[in-house]
Amino acid sequence: GRLNADNARFLLLAVLIVLYMLCGAAVFSAIELPTERETKERWEERLENFTRRHNLSRAELRHFLREYEEASVAGIRVDDIRPRWDFTGAFYFVGTVVSTIGFGMTTPATVGGKIFLIFYGLIGCAGTILFFNLFLERLITVIAYVMKSCHERQLRRKGVLPHNGRRGSGTSEVDSLAGWKPSVYYVMLILCVASLIISCCASAMYTPIEGWSYFDSLYFCFVAFSTIGFGDLVSSQNIRYESQGLYRFGNFVFILMGVCCIYSLFNVISIVIKQSINWILKKLACKCCHRCQRRLFHSRRNVVMPGNVRSRRNISIETDAVNESDTDGRRLSGEMISMKDFLASNKVSLAIMQKQLSETANGYPRQMGSNSKQNGFSGGVGALAIMNNRLAETSVDR
């Protein structure tokens, strides 16, 4: 039932993610591998020329470069940059930790710092994710309120709703508007536009101050706001800026707003992906059901169908959901069902039986004459008694 559907959805999503990763790996490998090979060849050529010019061995030069790599991990760079572990630098670092961005340009080098990071990040990341979820709830509330107000204005312009707000001829429209909710696709579109506006404004700030191109600034915004955090481009790392305090404050605000919007957008996109997966599973289930029905029809063409398989025109709204439950498949397959499923699937029959038993105990409201007794239609309990009483009524009428 529900568990099998969840497992099918999980497996289909896992397969789609693996296929998506394979396609992405193929595309990035085709695009980036030639550049990597060319860069490696140029580096080997420069290394060889440098060792010849300065009369150095390749082993000594490589040892020196390894020492520089170790210093680079600790935060040492060739260009002058701000200290990594003063208070402002440490605050920037913890911001990248709790937001799960993790640029990687600053990492703890001591054992104590690494141990503290484990416990600090555990609580900080959990708290920040909770903040993002609460932000998403309030953002969806605001978007729903605005879209509902616009929808009400459209209905008033069409004359469906009265302008004074009182109920008139459009009572049904007012009642339906009370439970109105915006479409997830509209919410996704609004979040896309908001994220794009924030990214464009932030890129306009980063381009002249950091010296990046506008495309690199947009690239940095997506990598930072989506909390991917490669670390190849990191803002606010130079030792001096014009209007440094104002720039760092703007950098903090843009990253905070961008992360919140992109996180909310990811959640909404995940809902759309889940709906798409459900649609795919539904289509696959329909095809499988059609095939099974055809096989069953051809194999059991002359067999009387079970009593619980009835025509759709004789099924009421209350019994429709019951007949479409998982108990039907289990009854047809011969599998045992629980008492709860049995009572749910036979709700209407049990109600009629309960009514008949109550009438039998308290005296049937319609007193049958001697003819009914002589015909032998009275007596019995349950469905048999209901049929007997109906036949008795028919006999009396005659």
How would you describe the overall organization of this protein?
This protein has 398 residues and is an all-alpha fold. It has 14 helices and no strands. The longest helix is centred in the C-terminal third of the chain and has 56 residues, at 244-299. The model is unreliable at 301-335, 366-384 and 394-398 (pLDDT under 50). Belongs to the two pore domain potassium channel (TC 1.A.1.8) family. This is KCNKD protein. InterPro entries: 2pore_dom_K_chnl (IPR003280), 2pore_dom_K_chnl_THIK (IPR005410), K_chnl_dom (IPR013099). Residues 33-60 form a coiled coil. Residues 77-139, 189-274 form the Potassium channel domain.
* Helix-strand pattern: HHHHHHHHHHHHHH
Low-confidence stretches: 301-335, 366-384, 394-398
Using the alpha-carbon principal axes, give the shape. Answer: elongated
Termini separation: 50 Å
What is the CA-based Rg, rounded? 36 Å
| Count of helical stretches | 14
Q: What's the average pLDDT?
A: 77
Percent of sequence in beta strands: under 5%
Number of strands: 0
GO molecular function, one term: outward rectifier potassium channel activity
Family: Belongs to the two pore domain potassium channel (TC 1.A.1.8) family.
Membrane topology: Multi-pass membrane protein
Keywords: Cell membrane, Coiled coil, Ion channel, Ion transport, Membrane, Metal-binding, Potassium, Potassium channel, Potassium transport, Transmembrane, Transmembrane helix, Transport, Voltage-gated channel
Q: Main traits of this protein?
A:
mainly alpha; 73% helix; elongated; voltage-gated channel; transmembrane helix; 2pore_dom_K_chnl; ion transport
